[in-house]
Amino acid sequence: MKRLILGTLALCFAAAPVAAKADICACKPEAASKKEPLPVKVKRLKEENVRLQQKLAECKVEKDAVRAQIAQLQRQISQLEDEKVQLENRLRVLPSKEELKAQIEELQSKLGR
């Protein structure tokens, strides 16, 4: 019985490193670093960083232009609303169509037509 337990443990310990090695080989983390060494990766990332910073600067300029356009449109809306209020007030003061027709008829009757 003691031999059976020792034999089973020996097989487990012998099989464990083989299984672990098989998992490590399946991952192959060094394969990625062999394709792109660290200095090359750093250079690529720096170039990408510069490109992204330029794109960010362009986006900021475009964003500022859009904000300026929005502000201009808001000013125009405000001016148009003010003009609308003025025209509505002026319209209230002017006589209606019926009142003007009545005045025309009155003037025509005074002139004898």
Textual characterization of the structure:
It is a single chain. 0% of the residues are buried. The radius of gyration is 44 Å and the shape is elongated. It is 92% helix and 0% strand. The protein has 4 helices and no strands. The longest helix is centred in the middle third of the chain and has 56 residues, at 38-93. It is mainly α. The model has no long low-confidence stretch (mean pLDDT 84).
How large a portion of the residues is in β-strands, by DSSP E?
under 5%
Shape: elongated
* First-last Cα distance: 140 Å
How many H/I helical runs? 4
Mean pLDDT: 84
Question: Could you tell me the number of beta strands?
Answer: 0
Helix content: over 70%
Alpha-carbon Rg, integer: 44 Å
Structural class label: mainly alpha
> Low-confidence parts, pLDDT < 50 over ≥5 residues?
none
Question: Major beta sheet, specifics?
Answer: none
Order of helices and strands: HHHH
